[in-house]
Amino acid sequence: MSIQVFKVTLAFIIILTTTSPLVFSQQNDWEITTTDYQNYTGIVTANGRIGILPSFKILETDQIILNNVYDKESLLGVSKILLGMNFGNLEIHINGEKLDNTKITNWKQTINMKEARFTTSFTYKNAANVSYSIYALRNVPYAGYIDFDIRALEDIDLKVVGKIQTPEEYNNPMSTFRILKDLETTMPILQTVAKSRLNRHRVATSATFIWHNINSTHENQRPELIHEKITEYDNRLSFKSKVRGGEQYTFAWTASQCSTQDFYDPQTESERFVIFNLLTPKNDLLSQHKALWKDLWKGDIIIDGDTQSQLDVRLALYHLYAFSREDSNLSIAPMGLSSQGYNGHIFWDTELWMYPPLLVLNQDIARSLVNYRSNRLDIAKKKAINFGYKGAMFPWESDDTGEEATPAWALTGTFEHHITADVGIAFWNYYRVTKDKKWLKERGYPLLKEVADYWVSRSTINKDGSYSIKNVVGANEFAPNVDDNAFTNGSAITCLQYASLAAKELEILPDSTWNHVANKIIIHKFEDGTTKEHSNYNGDQIKQADVNLLAYPLDIINDKKTILKDLKYYEPKLAKEGPAMAQSVFAVIYARLGDADNAFRLFKRSYEPNKRPPFGALAEAATSNNPYFATGAGGMLQTVIFGFAGLHITDKGIIQKNPILPKTWKKLTVTGVGPDKKTYVIE
């Protein structure tokens, strides 16, 4: 690992390269703790397959989200990601009394981002201290694990109830309890199997209790398990135990949830995952989970001198890692695995906002994100044909099928076409960073060729020989059905150029029309040289950054005079109810211009008004309450990586130009950059 150190002063930058390891942060940079659940918004634990959202109510989980598992929201509706069966609600009874928030003291919750562990602790009278940690296991990605530690302060009678609770929208649930046996090994399995709301999928959840330090072959060492089926939608398993004062009583509740989206036989697969967790020693199981997260955190951002910014940035990166997997070929929805927001569909939010930080810090995850699109290329080609175009036309909202998943009433689904260019840009950037020529040949260029052909067919030649792209919804969705939207045209130009570069890289003769059209697509200007958002733009309020995206990330506008004009003209026009990432673009551009004050101002503005107590979960806008908005996390991370750290994705790979620090930051360190896992230190 090489380490590049940049000393920033008013006059110069000193570059130092070393290969010695560095220790950057302390434990308190990794944890956020609260003792107050007023106005509570939880932080999800996720592993790229399932998301578990804890509650402020003790022993409860608000919801479980299943990635890439969809059914129609209604008979006449579009697809919607599934709300999973809830295996995270338990009960603890001590001396006959069921515990809840009104009966406890010393309530505390901590999210440990380093280990992806969410811990709740409390005290029950003078009888017991209770602590439990929730894991969405990175190593067993269809499984959750809740680890309990009860310390008796006096002799207590303990009863614990584990549940599988099936949402009412599911059909025909069948709830059972069986004890499987192989030779002398017994494996108790609580299970519910049901059909999703419109019967597209069969979903199966299995669960069991685990007692550490008890040999699984000696069932008489376990407490007796009692099965109680309240209804087919409420399946329960419980045990009782006596705990002496001063003793520590530990156990776990583990569950796995599988569906026919990923398995031919989700019922038995869910059983196998639970059995694996049951019979794997706890230390081994959790050590594997922690080791995988340790590997993820090789790509990290460390801020010295500003603890709050450090926690905010790390929480953003934690969410991007939690919502994705390097082995899945899946993408990330705007709300990740924290909710069913936006139906769990995939937007440009991935390619333009979340993908660039991940491409810099974890190329394996980045590859999954782009492969998600190439796996749906054939469907995109059919869509282009169906709308009278050539090449491939990607949907504005995508689901597991790759067909358009936007509700028909939303004009974005029919007209927001820049998504096709956004996908192509992400593909070339993946090659720029990785130089993976095999991937470029098999996946990258085949897609880039098709999207380039699309933009040629989508463009209209004007009388003067220029080209227009007409009747689109741009990045600024306040202006539907306009001609020559700045970002749409700019992204099409960039994508056409990238397709030619990809062809040349593979020693293929590029289609000459790609660069010809790219060179002739119009970008409209006001008389003073300010870039017009579209052909008839007259100064209206805008939803989010559009024109300014031509400076970053597209680099189509690169002269400082025009960049500043566009910044000053469009920043005041941003709507307060607009999404978080708009200010991030402005922040990156100001940082690259050397204006640290404006960059930091907009960096903070991009997310601070959107933080929700007590952990700082990001809502989409200052005026909304729909966390966690992973798109906003991607935007703020781009400000740090591509703004303050000065990193650029180029045809030569990732390079650094003119890093700059906010006044309050003593040092900025970015680790695990690119395939060579470089470290950049700016101080």
UniProtKB/TrEMBL annotation:
Residues 45-250 form the Glycoside hydrolase family 65 N-terminal domain. The keyword Hydrolase applies. It comes from the Bacteria. GO terms for molecular function: hydrolase activity. InterPro entries: 6-hairpin_glycosidase_sf, 6hp_glycosidase-like_sf, GH65_N, Glyco_hydro_65_M, Glyco_hydro_65_N. The keyword Hydrolase applies. Residues 314-524, 533-607 form the Glycoside hydrolase family 65 central catalytic domain. Pfam families: Glyco_hydro_65m, Glyco_hydro_65N. Keywords: Hydrolase. This is Glycoside hydrolase family 65 protein. It comes from Aquimarina celericrescens. The lineage of its organism: Bacteria, Pseudomonadati, Bacteroidota, Flavobacteriia, Flavobacteriales.
